[in-house]
Amino acid sequence: MHYCLNLCEFIKTFVYIAALIRINKISLLQYRNYTSSVFSLGAPVTCITGPNGSGKTNLLDAVYYLCYTKSYFSAYQQHSARAGTDGFRITGDFLRGGREEAISAKWKAGKKEIFKNDIEYDKITDHIGIYSAVMIAPDDTELINGGSELRRKWVDSILGQVDKTYLELLIRYQRVLLQRNAWLKIQGYRPATDNTELEYYDAQLAADGTYIHRQRLKFIDDLLPLLNDFYHRLSGGHEPLQVTYTSDLAQKPLADWLTQNLQHDLRYQRTLRGIHKDDWDFRLNDMPLKQFGSQGQKKSFLFALKLAQYAYLSKVLGHLPILLLDDIFEKLDQNRMEALLRIIQGPDFGQVILTDTHPERIAQAFGAEAEVGFIHLG
Ligand SMILES: Nc1ncnc2c1ncn2[C@@H]1O[C@H](COP(=O)(O)OP(=O)(O)O)[C@@H](O)[C@H]1O
Ligand SMILES: [Mg+2]
Asked: What is the C-alpha separation between 56 and 294, in angstroms, rounded?
């Protein structure tokens, strides 16, 4: 009996350690507005404070960069290098499964290198999924209000880190799609004598697109219960919520679309049907959120989406991602803020790093017992 108890304790401790990832320290060299700075992030909750323009968001983004080898906010790597320089370096001291690991990202003259314990990755994509993070930032409402491309990117960023095949097939699909579109354009002035090339593109797109479609379908099934739960905990409401995944592939296989739609594709000189047109329709009370949702409903929905992303990643990856919150207390009312704090301080959430212009607000929100570390910039 005693032995069994000890064993249970041992297993519990082991599971806990395996599930824990944390960044303890970060060093920035020529990253954004930083010249050379080191910050300690060891506390379970770290609050970065300082006036506007002092580099709070940039510091949060540097943590994101170490997890995903790219900025959350900018698609151009050059923007991350301090103005007037042609490179930057970020190093993070991480803890994973009880073991220390140094992750380093170096970008110089257009070339990116990622290191784990000073050993360079052969393939940068091998780093994806090892350290995960979820960012919630002020402009994220675009996920609800913006075009379908943003929602596809969001879903792809999640599935790409839990499923390597998904990531590889998606990259290939996008490449072949560009090739097929280039082929369609050429037909206008230099028609091909046979269809060998087109048949190759179609077969490849159909195979990869079918896999991606299947994984996206399954993802919504997995996400929906999590989303429902978080939405109702955040809003306190009970209105029913729906997410509809719309795809051409729901009507017929992609191979059929590609052959039957060829005349249209030739006229428009691009591939009109496929998983690159997929979208997700968010609804409350059976009304589209984008057109009819109130600001408050959209905010709760967005936070619920991000928390559901967090819960989904932690379930599939087997560790608790780092939660990065950029200026979110600025825009949340008291009730939602309290609900959010209850959720993220629970056992299903790990390290939290956040930014705020008001340190008192954070100290008060988290309460006296919480271990909050502060970084003051400015
Ligand atoms: N590549 C860069 N080189 C130099 N400064 C930069 C670069 N990118 C952003 N900045 C500066 O960083 C500051 C913004 O930092 P940011 O993290 O957004 O501040 P905060 O979140 O505290 O308001 C601005 O002053 C901006 O000019
Ligand atoms: Mg900011």
From this structure: 29
290 lines ligand 1 (CB under 6 A): no
Q: Residue 362 Cα, ligand 1 centroid: separation in angstroms? A: 23
Confidence of residue 331 (pLDDT cuts 50, 70, 90): confident
Query: Domain range for residue 349?
Result: 27-129+322-378
Q: How many domains does the chain have?
A: 2
User: Is the entire prediction scored with pTM above 0.85?
Assistant: yes
Could you tell me if 286 and 358 lie in one domain? no
**Residue 368 CA to its chain's centroid (Å):** 31
Q: Give the span between the Cα atoms of 282 and 298, in whole angstroms.
A: 10
Paired with 100 in beta bridges are: 95
Close Cβ partners of 267 (under 8 Å, ≥ 6 residues apart): none
Q: Supply the pLDDT for residue 19.
A: 74
Confirm or reject: Cβ of 31 under 6 Å from ligand 1. no
What's the CATH number where 95 sits? Answer: 3.40.50.300
The pLDDT confidence band at residue 7, using thresholds 50, 70 and 90, is low
Residues 243 and 166 both lie in one domain: yes
212 and 123 in a common domain: no
**Residues 137, 123 share a domain:** no
Residue 280 pLDDT > 80: yes
Mean pLDDT of 211-227: 97
Partners of 40 in the β-ladder: 25
